[in-house]
Amino acid sequence: VYPDDNQETTQSTVRISPTVINNLGVRTAPVIQGAFAMPIETIGYVEPNENNISHIHTYANGWVKKLFVKAVGEEVKNGQIVLQLYSPTLVNAEEEYLIAIESKNQTLIKASYKKLQSLHISEQQIEQIKTTRQASHLINIYPHQNGVVTMLNVREGMYVTPETEMMSIVDLSNVWMMAQIFEDQANLVKTGEFAIARLTAF
Prior knowledge:
Layout (H helix, E strand, L loop, with lengths): L17 H7 L19 E5 L4 E4 L5 E6 L7 E2 L6 E4 L1 H16 L2 H13 L4 H10 L6 E3 L5 E6 L6 E2 L6 E4 L4 E5 L23
Antiparallel strand pairs: 1-10, 2-9, 3-5, 3-8, 4-7, 5-6, 7-9
């Protein structure tokens, strides 16, 4: 506030020197009512939706006889055979199911059917066994979802156990973008707000 001999003392005014205004680049505008935006500019990383990741395991020891997915990055669909497994345990379970069918004992049929289900033999293959009355020596393994193979840990001829993670499949039709913000900015982010992402790839 600068004293001005010509300024009337009865007016409650604030005066700034024109030189200061010019040096600071001060601009004036009418007061308006509206939303006060606090944009956050930060880095984000595109990642798979963790709800859409599935892993393929066997439920019995065996050998990978045929592998239909050869490389990471291949697309697979639900219901597509990704590999065929030979397992004496699974073959024995199939034969028990056939013996139960021949005996026509409903209790045995139900128990042996449940055993096949617990070993994750597909319904298509169980129906095939029931129709042909023959045990299948190669068990078909199917993915649980559509997606892209992101990990392939087996090759034809390998011996696998239930602990072996044979394959990982990620559905990339829906992805997450993980944005990193500082702790003191966390209270500025609310559910339902939107963000604008700029990706160098697009």
